[in-house]
Amino acid sequence: MSDITSQSLTSLVNNIKEKKLSSEEVTKAFVDRSEKSKELNSYITEDFSNAIDKAKKFDEKPNFDLKLPGIPMAVKDLFCTKDIRTTAGSKILENFIPTYESTVTQNIWNEGGILLGKLNCDEFAMGSSNETSFYGNVQNPIDKGLVPGGSSGGSAAAVSGQLTPITIGTDTGGSIRQPASFTGTVGLKPTYGSCSRYGIVAFASSLDQAGPMSQNVEDCALLQEVISSYDEKDSTSIDFKRDQYSKDLTRDIKGKKIGIPKEYRVDGMPKEIEELWKKGIEYAKDCGAEIIDISLPNTSYALPTYYIVAPAEASSNLARYDGVKYGFRAKGENLIDMYEKTRSEGFGAEVQRRIMIGTYVLSSGYYDAYYLKAQKVRKLIKNDFDEAYKKVDAILTPSTPSSAFKIGEKKNDPVSMYLNDIFTVPVNLAGLPAISIPAGHDAAGYPLGLQIIGKAFREQEILNLAYAMEDKINFKNKINDWWIK
Amino acid sequence: MSIDLKTIKHISKLSRISVDEQKAEKLAGDLNSIFNFIEKLNELNTDNVEPLTSVSETTLKFRSDEVKNQNIREQIIKNSPEENEDFFVVPKVVE
After folding, report:
1. How far is A306 from chain B (nearest CA, A)?
2. Which CATH class is domain A2-256?
3. CA A259, A262, A265, A266 torsion: positive or negative?
């Protein structure tokens, strides 16, 4: 059955449409491989028997006009799924069973997708290694003892390990692109407002976006086409003309102008990342793109800005977890005591840390010095991109400042963990789309990614650039199934 | 700037997260290293910069104020840790 699970989404869709494979065969193959992959700890909640039932139903009355005809898919456990437990990686939501469906997952089921289960992630998507999850860390299929990145770590591991043909994650500061880079997979963070946030457990509402994670760019384009929609249930959803991303995908990027920002050459960046970036520039040139040096002068202020804005929004969003309306409740002597114990016992250390940072920067006497200051710097960072995009169509950078690190290596040093997102965070602050594609390996054989940042609403452009470069790079992931039992 | 234990206790109260002495000390250490990192923003002069509150340059849409979901009381109460008929239950607040 491994020949089924190693296929791309696009090839599975074609095989189902041509009746060479049934949805049941495909679903059973992924269920079977997922069952043998417990050691990765990718899943928080499995829904395998329901998935097989749904696949059988699809085969009885197939609709081949759908974009994902009978395709099984596991999703990050941050998306509310009706009647299926949704934990956000937190103890506080351990028994939460949503009574409604997120718009993004609903779009997938509407096009014939079938839920396999819910994938592990950092608690409330706060983390870069999947180590903050209440449900334990996830193993990177690349090597035992290696983090898969985060916060969409379970999603990245599941795609890379071929437990699901494709998946969705969410990206607030790099949570799709960094794990994609660490696992040799493709991850797209769409423009803010492209995918509805309705039914996604909120972390930082002005930054959160859902997006596809896949084995290749073509699959990524197809899923983006499915999940992106205008939704009146999300007041920040934007009604723009969405392209037929997979249909319009082309490798013809001749004459496209690609900017190289000098500020992304950060101190202490490993030589192999610098080399990878140089190689990426050569690949882009080979594809006919024009390379232009640009400047994004406020880049080094992006992370400090993010660590004010994101915790501030999180402290507000997470105020709803009070042990009254849903979720975990601790016993208390009175109402306030109950609140305080519930939140102290229900949230993990990183989430508590961020709530407290956020509370502090919004508190009386500190609001102007921190939160307002950060919003002003955020404006400067966005201005940098606006200025650069007068000269270029897209921007090429490394996705991360290093390859995947060992489990436990950075756990006790929050600032060194935060530095993982140095190249991805500016994109969220400016609300832009960006894609990470696997582009090479380091000396240990661990994958490294390149990031292509686009103009707002120009997902098609960066998908095309990624598609062309992917062909030149010809990346092969080194997976030896070490975890299979 | 340095965040002391008194400040940690104050933030803990505001955020309704209880902390004991040991946790407060750990948090003070962590928050100080994070705020040292954040202080970098003070290098920038932002006197004449408008704060960015939303990346999308469109204004929020109006919608008509209609009731769409009716009779979902059961759904709303379904996930509450403690309930009594149609109510959420909290520890006693009035004597």
Report:
1. 9
2. alpha beta
3. negative
